[in-house]
Amino acid sequence: MSATGQCLCGAVKFTAEDVDPHVHACHCSMCRNWTGGPMQAAQVGKVAFSGEAFIKRYASSEWAERGFCTQCGTSLFYRLKEPEMYMMPTGLFEDEEQFELAGEIFIDEKPGGYSFAGDHPRMTAAEFMASIGAPEAD
Ligand SMILES: [Zn+2]
Ligand SMILES: [Zn+2]
Question: Is the pTM of this model over 0.90?
Fold first, then answer.
């Protein structure tokens, strides 16, 4: 499915294609530092931005970057370089009701002060990295 959204100030708008409605919440320390809390993000196949001049990309690792709006600071996307893939926080989308929490990852990095209800898979960092065939975290 395709879906639209924007940052807090509206300088950056986007239309995403092939949006997966089954989202994962990530409790890893980097996502929590970046967004200020656990990140619920939707995987999107393709995304077209307007207001590209307001997007700053931060290289958070050798294999990925995180984009944000330079005017309001909204966390816009996590982009894996190879194969190219975008994860976008569900809070950016116009219609958040389309999303369903399908699982939690990096559950072993979750602070004790909150937890999500629901009967869905909860993977540790090691379990998650093994499931995608990657050797390292983040
Ligand atoms: Zn903005
Ligand atoms: Zn994370």
Answer: no
- Helix, strand, coil percentages for the chain (3-state, nearest 5): 20, 40, 40
Q: Compute the residue count for the chain.
A: 138
Q: Where are the domains of the chain?
A: 3-131
Share of the chain above pLDDT 90, in %: 89
Question: How many whole angstroms from 34 Cα to the centroid of ligand 2?
Answer: 9
Ligand 1 midpoint to CA 51 (Å): 9
Please check whether the domain covering 3-131 is classified as CATH 1.10.10.10. Answer: no
Phi and psi at residue 67, to the nearest 5°: -105, 145
pLDDT digits (tens, 9 = 90+) for 72-126: 999 999 999 988 899 999 999 999 999 999 999 999 999 999 999 999 999 999 9
Antiparallel, parallel or unpaired: β 13-19 and 22-26 = unpaired
What is the residue-wise DSSP string for 19-51?
A: E-SEEEEE--HHHHHHHSS-EEEEEEEEEEEE-
Say which ligand is closest to the CA of 12.
Answer: 1
Q: Residues lining ligand 2 (ion), CB within 5 A?
A: 26, 28, 31
